[in-house]
Structure formats: C-alpha cells, structure tokens
C-alpha cells in the first residue's frame, strides 16, 4: 500500500515538472503521463493512420513556422544595431532593441519633418522678400560693367549733380 502511494506521488511530481517545463515554452497543457510504475495501466487504443497523419502534418507546419520565425529574427538582427553587451543576444533582447531603434527612427523622422517645414517657411519668406526687393529696386537699378565697377542709372546720376 505504501509503495503504491509513493508511486502515485512520483507520477504526480513528474506530471507537474513536465507541465511547468512545457508552460515555460508556451505549449498547450498536456494530459497526465502514465508511466510504467502506474498501477492503473490501461491499454492504449492503437493510433489510427488519420491521427498520425494529422500529427505529422502539424509537426511539419510547426517546423516551417519556426524556420520562418528564425529567418525573420535573423533579418531583424541585421537591421537593428546590436550593442556590444554580449556576443549572443536573446530573442527578447533583440525585440527590445528593435523597439528602441524604431522609436529612435521615429524621433529622427519627426525632427527631420520639423526641419523641412521650417526650411519651407524660410524659403517662402525669402522668396517674398526677394520679390519685394526686386519690385522696389527696379526703379533704382545699379548696373555693373565688365570690370566690376558700378554704373548708376539716369535717376541716380541726376541726384548726384
């Protein structure tokens, strides 16, 4: 009787360890595992071919999903500047660095946009100022000859004498 209770406790401990291990990886919960030590052995029904095919196709799909995820993480690793903290980066640290990098790029983009708008406003102001100066200065134009000396217009010459 005491041996039977001990075996049940061992089974329960193994089940809890396995459940905790799988919960760390995010897998779905599993059914209790029946070990050879179990006194309640039941003969499992043979697994049908359909179930085996479903399981193998699921395994293949999961394998491809993990491969694509690895590929995407490798591509992300090339795009995100990684710090010299360590030689090997975890997925979590890579994703955190990618998030920080995106925020930094967004800030730079915002600053560049503000600078562009400021330069456009300044350009419009200078263009208007140039037009004003060209309109007001058209009556009193100063011409330069080929030597670089200035020749005054008739209106200026009349005021000098």
UniProtKB/TrEMBL annotation:
Protein known as: Max dimerization protein 4
Statement: the UniProt record of this protein carries the keyword Transcription regulation: yes
Main location group: nucleus
PROSITE patterns linked: BHLH (PS50888)
Gene Ontology annotations for the cellular component aspect, listed alphabetically: nucleus
Keyword tags: Coiled coil, DNA-binding, Nucleus, Repressor, Transcription, Transcription regulation
Single annotated GO MF: RNA polymerase II cis-regulatory region sequence-specific DNA binding
InterPro entries for this protein: bHLH_dom (IPR011598), HLH_DNA-bd_sf (IPR036638)
Lineage: Eukaryota, Metazoa, Chordata, Craniata, Vertebrata
Compositional bias per record (Polar residues), positions renumbered to this chain: 146-161
Signal peptide: none
Chain ranges of the BHLH domain: 53-105
Compartments where located: Nucleus
Coiled coil: 98-136
Region (Disordered) residue spans: 39-63, 136-161
């Amino acid at each position: 009787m005491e041996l039977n209770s001990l075996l049940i406790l061992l089974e329960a401990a193994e089940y809890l360890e396995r459940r905790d291990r799988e919960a760390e990886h995010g897998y779905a919960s599993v059914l209790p595992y029946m070990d050879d030590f179990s006194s309640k052995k039941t003969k499992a029904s043979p697994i049908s071919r359909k179930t085996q095919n479903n399981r193998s196709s699921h395994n293949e799909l999961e394998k491809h999903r993990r491969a694509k995820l690895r590929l995407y993480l490798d591509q992300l690793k090339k795009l995100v500047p990684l710090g010299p903290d360590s030689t090997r980066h975890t997925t979590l640290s890579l994703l955190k660095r990618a998030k920080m990098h995106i925020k930094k790029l967004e800030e730079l983009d915002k600053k560049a946009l503000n600078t562009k708008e400021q330069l456009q406003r300044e350009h419009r102001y200078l263009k208007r100022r140039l037009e004003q100066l060209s309109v007001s200065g058209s009556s009193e134009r100063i011409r330069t000859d080929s030597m670089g000396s200035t020749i005054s217009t008739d209106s200026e010459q009349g005021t000098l004498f």
